[in-house]
Amino acid sequence: MNLHEYQGKEILSHFGVRIQRGIVAKSAQDAVTAAKQLHAETGTSWYVVKAQVHAGGRGKGGGVKLAKSLQEVETIAGQIIGMNLITPQTSAEGKKVHQVLIAEDVYYPGESETAEFYMSVLLNRARGRNMIMYSTEGGMDIEHVAETTPHLIFTEEVDPSVGLMPFQARRIAFNLGLSGNAFKEMTKFVTSLYKAYVKSDASLFEINPVLKTSDNKIMAVDAKVTIDDNAMFRHQDYVNLRDLREENPIEVEAGALGLNYVDLDGNVGCMVNGAGLAMATMDLIKQAGGEPANFLDVGGTADAARVEAAFKIILKDPNVKAILINIFGGIVRCDRVAQGVIDAYKNIGDIKVPIIVRLQGTNADVAKELLDNSGLAVLSATEFKEAADKVHSVLA
C-alpha cells in the first residue's frame, strides 16, 4: 500500500524523525487557512505547496511550488488542485490532484550552508537483509545518480537479528561528510528512520531529500512510503490511509472480489490458479508471440461465479485480443471451472475475443468434454504447447 507524502511524514514523526511540517488542504481556501495555522505554529512566512499523488518527480510536472505570501498560496493551490499532474512516474494522462500539502519553508538563512542527501530503507532480497541506501546527491533521481556517479551511492546492510547498530549510524553520517552537531543529528535521524521502517512493516521508506538545514538540523523534506499489505492485520490504524483514487480502478475492483490481479500492457488476458503457474503462463504467452495483458490468479476456489467475475475483469481492458485460461485442478475441479467458463460466456454475451482454455488435473477429461460440446467459440487444449500454438494462431 502506497502512502501520500503527508501520511508517510506522520509515521516518521511518530517514531521521532524530524520532518518538514505541513497541513493538508483540499481547496484553495483550505490552503490559506492551513498556511495561517502553519505560520502561527512555526513562524514560517514562505510556504511550499505540494501536490499529493502517488508518483515521484512532482516538481518536474509543476506539482511543487514555493509561495511567498498567502495570496500566492491561494493562487498556486487553486492551480494545482484539480490538475492532471504528469510526471516521469505517471501515465501520459497523468494523475488528478485532489489535495495539496502546505509545508513550512525550511531553506532559511543561517550560519552554515544547507545540504541535501538521499536516503532509503528497503529489503535486499538477494541477501535477505534490510538495507539503507544513501547518497550525498539528494534532490536528484537516484537512478540518474547510479548511472552517472555510482561511487556516490553507499549502502549499509542491517542484520535483522540484531538491528541497526550505533556504529552503522555513525558510519552513514561520516560517509555523508558531516561533523559536529549535524553528525549527531544524522545518527539520530538514521536510527529513528530505521525504527519507523521496521515497526510499521514497510517495504520502502524513501526520503529525497534529507535536508541539513543552515542551523545543522536533519529532517525529512519528502517521504515516499510503501507498507507491506501482508502485515496490515497488525496495523489496523493504517487501513484508512489507503487512497483508492490513486490506484488502478480495475485492480481495486478485482481486489474487492478476492482476485489477485495486476494490470499490464499486453494483448493476451490470462486467468490462472496459482502464482507460479500464472508466471509460467505469462512466459508461454511471450513465447507464442503475444504480450500478457494482466496477471490474474483466481486462487484455489475457482468456482463458476469466481471465473465469471474474472472474465468481466479481464474484458474491461480494451487491449485484450485473446484470453488464455490455464487451470491446474488440484483442489479445484476442472469441470467446475469449465462450467464457469460456459456460464460466463452465456451471461456476459457478445464476447468478441477468442478464448483458449487449458484444464489439467481433477476431472480434466469431463471439463474438456463440457467445453467441446458447449457449442461456444472456446478452444480447448490439454498440453502447454498446444495452448501456446492456439494462442499464436489467434494472434496471427
Quick overview:
With 396 residues, this protein is an alpha+beta fold. It contains 12 helices and 18 strands.
Measured by DSSP, the beta-strand proportion falls in 15-25%
Structural class: alpha+beta
Task: Return residue spans where pLDDT drops below 50 for at least 5 consecutive residues.
Answer: none
**What is CATH's topology name of the largest domain?**
D-amino Acid Aminotransferase, Chain A, domain 1
Briefly, what CATH class of the largest domain? Alpha Beta
Annotation field: number of helices: 12
H-E string: HEHEEHEEEEEHEHHEEEHEEHEHEHEHEH
CATH architecture heading of the largest domain: 2-Layer Sandwich
Overall geometry: elongated
Arithmetic mean of pLDDT: 91
* CATH superfamily heading of the largest domain: ATP-grasp fold, B domain
Number of DSSP strand runs: 18
Cofactor: Mg(2+)
InterPro entries: ATP-grasp_succ-CoA_synth-type, ATP_grasp_subdomain_1, Succ-CoA_synthase_bsu_CS, SUCC_ACL_C, Succ_CoA_ligase-like_bsu, Succinyl-CoA_synth-like
Domain ATP-citrate synthase/succinyl-CoA ligase C-terminal: 271-391
GO molecular function, one term: succinate-CoA ligase (ADP-forming) activity
Throw out a few tags for this protein.
D-amino Acid Aminotransferase, Chain A, domain 1, succinate-CoA ligase (GDP-forming) activity, ATP_grasp_subdomain_1, Dna Ligase, domain 1, six-stranded antiparallel sheet, 396 residues, 3 domains, Rossmann fold
SSE layout and pairing:
Elements lengths: L4 H10 L7 E4 L2 H15 L4 E5 L12 E4 L2 H11 L3 E2 L9 E2 L3 E5 L10 E10 L4 E7 L6 H7 L4 E6 L7 H10 L4 H20 L2 E11 L5 E3 L3 E4 L21 H8 L3 E4 L4 E5 L2 H13 L6 E4 L6 H12 L6 E8 L4 H15 L6 E7 L2 H9 L5 E4 L2 H12 L1
Parallel strand pairs: 14-16, 16-17, 17-18
Antiparallel strand pairs: 1-6, 2-3, 2-6, 4-5, 7-8, 7-10, 8-9, 10-11, 10-12, 13-15
Helix pairs in contact: 2-3, 5-6, 9-10, 10-11
